[in-house]
Amino acid sequence: MYGPDDLELNRRDLMAGASACAVATACPSASWAAAPASSEPVMSKVSFTVNGTAHEIDLDTRTTLLDAVREHLHLTGAKKGCDHGQCGACTMIVDGRRINSCLTLAVMHQGDAITTIEGLGKPGDLHPMQAAFVKHDGYQCGFCTPGQICSGVAVLDEIKAGIPSHITADLTATAAVTADEIRERMSGNICRCGAYSNIVDAMTEVAGRQA
Asked: Where is the 2Fe-2S ferredoxin-type domain (predicted)?
């Protein structure tokens, strides 16, 4: 038979063992914590075309497309805003489709054709979307504007190609270029200055000219 002292000892042992397990789980061993990380990044040669010019560059495989274009090709039009794919300031057009370039690795775009704001038009020879943004005052501080314009160009191409949005009523018909369609499709591009209505006007004008 076990007496009270035995039961008390068992309870103490149980509590001590549970505490030791909790500490071991929460605190990794010193040898694991001190394991040195590799000091050399893994490099890879990447080839793609940006704004019609072929490039081949050696990159750390962790480099995003946004950083590759901004830091290695020195095309700084696309902006690093949130760096989490939530603001759209980094929007580029890759093989005809708009993407958040901060969320994709450069090595994933071997052989792709990439267009940034610098490739759409230049001073004195603006792309129609750039000219419409100027005409309708579709920007204020201008930080989000490169992404807005690239996204706007791609949005009109999406509608023309018959790609529906979440609010397209008839999935078998080409969506109309309405203010609601534009707002839905452009919802991933944030303008903290609030130039949304002017952006809709600019895109509507360009769509009308393309029709």
From this structure: 44-120
